[in-house]
Design a protein that fits this description.
Helix content is 40%, strand content 16%. The chain contains 15 helices and 14 strands. The strands form two sheets. It has an eight-stranded mixed beta sheet with strand order 3-4-2-1-5-6-7-8, sandwiched between helices. Strands 11-10-9-12-13-14 form a six-stranded parallel beta sheet, with helices on both faces. The longest helix has 18 residues. The chain is globular, with a radius of gyration of 21 Å. It starts with a strand and ends in a 5-residue tail after the last helix.
């Protein structure tokens, strides 16, 4: 089977045009890791970028890479027409059996549905729901992304839904849906927690600092606990001083020595933080399939997470983690306190979560399920 994966090269997204190797979102990276373990498939990854970049021909024995240069005019301002045309031209050369668009926020979904080949989409973030939570004004990025998502859903052969939350949001628009969670990078299963005795517990909160991720309310919720317990609340993720929410975040940190912000970190740095973490906290107001929850589970770190969106699909309350109400300060602080006060509970939750992650989110498990879906779309022809 020949598969074309359309996904964003993060060298373009982060302006790292001189970097020699492509890198992708955590979920597509993990899926490709699974495909690399299936020699019976041939995978072609296709990404559009605004500058020409040197790229390897292959990123695994059975995975080829194609970087397509699309001038700036062919992007959002023209509804990604340049990306659609460049991708379609490359796909006509490759002649894949199926095309898989990763994400509906930029060009990948549109390029998949206009490819002329059998295609499926994966929704990583529900653009229509994100735009609603953010209250995105007309013609902003999220507002546009929500409308492009609505356009592509009925035009693809099917949607891979990573949680029931997504499935409920798209089932009335999509021809067909499948429920398949994201894969988690296999290297996170090799992380071993190394808690330093005598040191304050480390509470890890990973994600871009924004209203949707709800970090500011989480800080305020922990104020009473910080008055009687010693711990470090460590935030990893980008933040903007230019946005009101970001400015409020940094103002909160200035008066709270137990809070730290270390900015964006790569996968290797995140694994180092997870090794020393007592728990991972996700206080989001809206989330679909946050990768940090899967990565923490794989690494054996207890998780407390908001009972919103697709999170309950990933965290079984009281079994593989603890769920809380992100709008209720007492609920958030209560789950944190349970983990800090009951190390036996923390160990049991982490062990069960790790076992579940191996069974549900391992790259090979998810890659094999995707091949089954492709065969279903193609009517068993491959």
């Amino acid at each position: 089977m020949k598969i074309a994966i359309l996904t964003t090269d993060n060298r373009h997204h982060f302006g790292e045009f001189d970097r020699p190797e492509p890198w992708f979102g955590t979920a597509p990276e993990a899926l490709l890791q699974g495909f690399a373990g299936l020699p019976e498939v041939e995978v072609h990854v296709v990404s559009c970028t605004q500058r020409p970049m040197k790229s390897p021909e292959k990123i695994a024995l059975n995975i080829f890479y194609h970087s397509l240069h699309v001038p700036r005019l062919g992007w959002q301002r023209t509804l990604y027409q340049g990306c659609i045309r460049a991708t379609r031209k490359k796909l006509r050369e490759l002649r894949p059996d199926i095309v898989h668009g990763q994400g509906t926020e930029r060009d990948c979904a549109l390029a998949a549905v206009f490819s002329g080949f059998a295609n499926v989409l994966t929704i990583h973030g529900n653009m229509r729901l994100v735009a609603k939570v953010n209250g995105s004004p007309p013609f902003t990025f999220w507002w546009n992304a929500a409308r492009l998502e609505a356009f592509t859903l009925p035009r693809t052969n099917g949607v891979v839904c990573i949680t029931n939350y997504t499935r409920a949001a798209v089932i009335s628009r999509a021809r067909r849906t499948w429920l398949v969670p994201n894969a988690v990078d296999g290297s996170f299963f090799e992380v071993r927690p190394q808690i330093n005795a005598g040191q304050p517990p480390v509470l890890l909160c990973v994600g871009f600092i924004c209203l949707r991720k709800n970090q500011n309310a989480f800080i305020r919720a922990l104020d009473p606990l910080a008055a009687r317990e010693k711990f470090r609340l460590v935030f990893l993720g980008g933040a903007s001083h230019d946005e009101p929410y970001g400015r409020e975040f940094f103002e909160l940190l200035r008066s709270r020595p137990w809070c730290e912000h270390h900015g964006f970190v790569d996968r290797a740095q995140l694994k180092n933080w997870l090794r020393g973490a007592t728990l991972l906290a996700l206080p989001s107001l809206e989330d679909n399939c946050p990768m940090t929850v899967l990565e923490a589970a794989a690494a054996g770190v207890p998780v407390i997470a908001a009972d919103v969106g697709g999170v309950p699909d990933l965290v079984a309350d009281g079994e593989t983690g603890l769920l809380c109400d992100p709008l209720d300060a007492s609920s958030m602080v209560g789950t944190v306190e349970k983990i800090l006060k009951r190390p036996d509970l923390a160990r049991a939750l982490a062990a069960k979560a790790n076992q579940s992650a191996r069974e549900r989110f391992h790259p090979l498990v998810i890659a094999r399920r995707h091949v089954e879906i492709y065969n279903e779309v193609l009517g068993g022809k491959c």
